[in-house]
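in:
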């Protein structure tokens, strides 16, 4: 059974681990904050459960833990940011802050980040724009080929997420955060940690057959040359070509635009920076309409969706509702963590020679 751990303990543990690896305190605080925010929102696939993967990446080399992002090319509404081969969390936050600043002056601001690594949950950065009254859109590339193109037998694309957030008035913000594969690869990792079967259609082998054993599914994603994650839609009959196209769109915006790598042509090599790219855009609604008009109309649209008659016992939801519900619960009860993950984090603490805080 999962153990519910207080949020502050999880945040403190993540910060201590990152600092022990050599990350300056302010950068460790940003990175830990993004990870814990994902856990709070119920997005366990992108929370502190990523730290075992990050440890392997740090030990392999290629990540500059002390890197500070900087603008290397800019225009009135745009900026190209070099992440310095550091973790993506500080670079993406810097990029979105840069985009927001330009949007205040120009109505829209865009930052492209290159030379980065994994940045956690894309929705976090889109939500940064909402916190400042703006619309946010984020895409990212990734370093691992795990998505199988339509009609393909091998993975050629990464999960390449897309996030979009819009402010509302009396409603919570509209927050869409999605992988362009049927699920993110880390969702399969969660099933692997808990030992639960992978839902049919998430992962396929080289012959297109569904793989539901969590160990075999993980192997098809991370080790075996054939098979991998299905594209959003799952099958040709369910229009997986749309997920395939969205994945490529996300990559072109996030990586190609700023000079990031395409993993199929430039596979990741241990010890070498991944050169992941991120695309971050902020739009100021007041550049188009009077203050508050956009938010009012978002409320009207959301309210209409909530009034949709339900086909079953569960009500119609709007993007962002599950995260909001998870946050309310977990802020009081704590973050549920599988024993297998706790064991992995305890091992990390031992190897880093720091105190383990997550169990009494």
């Amino acid at each position: 059974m999962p153990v519910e751990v207080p949020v502050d303990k999880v945040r403190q543990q993540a910060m201590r681990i990152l600092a022990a690896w050599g990350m300056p305190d302010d950068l460790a605080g940003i990175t830990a904050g993004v990870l814990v925010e994902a856990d709070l929102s119920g997005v366990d696939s992108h929370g502190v459960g990523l730290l075992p993967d990050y440890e392997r990446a740090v030990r392999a080399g290629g990540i500059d833990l002390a890197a500070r992002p900087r603008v290397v090319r800019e225009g009135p509404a745009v900026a190209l940011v070099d992440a310095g081969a550091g973790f993506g969390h500080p670079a993406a936050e810097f990029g979105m802050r840069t985009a927001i600043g330009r949007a205040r002056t120009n109505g829209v601001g865009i930052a492209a980040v290159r030379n980065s690594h994994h940045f956690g949950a894309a929705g976090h950065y889109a939500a940064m724009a909402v916190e400042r009254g703006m619309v946010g859109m984020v895409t990212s590339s990734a370093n691992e080929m795990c998505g199988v193109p339509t009609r393909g037998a091998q993975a050629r694309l990464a999960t390449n997420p897309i996030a979009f957030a819009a402010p509302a008035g009396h409603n919570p913000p509209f927050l869409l955060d999605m992988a362009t594969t049927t699920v993110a690869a880390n969702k399969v990792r969660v099933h692997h940690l808990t030992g639960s079967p992978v839902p049919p259609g998430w992962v396929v082998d080289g012959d297109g057959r569904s793989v539901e054993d969590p160990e075999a599914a993980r192997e098809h994603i991370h080790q075996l040359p054939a098979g991998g994650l299905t594209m959003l839609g799952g099958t040709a009959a369910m229009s997986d070509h749309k997920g395939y196209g969205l994945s490529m769109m996300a990559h072109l915006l996030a990586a190609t635009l700023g000079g990031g790598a395409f993993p199929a042509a430039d596979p990741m090599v241990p010890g070498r920076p991944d050169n992941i790219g991120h695309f971050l855009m902020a739009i100021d609604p007041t550049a188009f309409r009077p203050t508050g008009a956009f938010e009012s109309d978002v409320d009207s649209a959301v309210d209409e969706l909530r009034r949709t008659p339900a086909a079953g016992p569960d009500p119609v939801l709007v993007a962002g509702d599950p995260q909001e519900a998870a946050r309310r619960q977990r802020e009081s009860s704590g973050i549920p963590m599988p024993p297998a993950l706790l064991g992995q984090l305890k091992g990390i603490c031992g190897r880093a020679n720091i105190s383990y805080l997550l169990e009494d």
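note: The mean pLDDT is 95.
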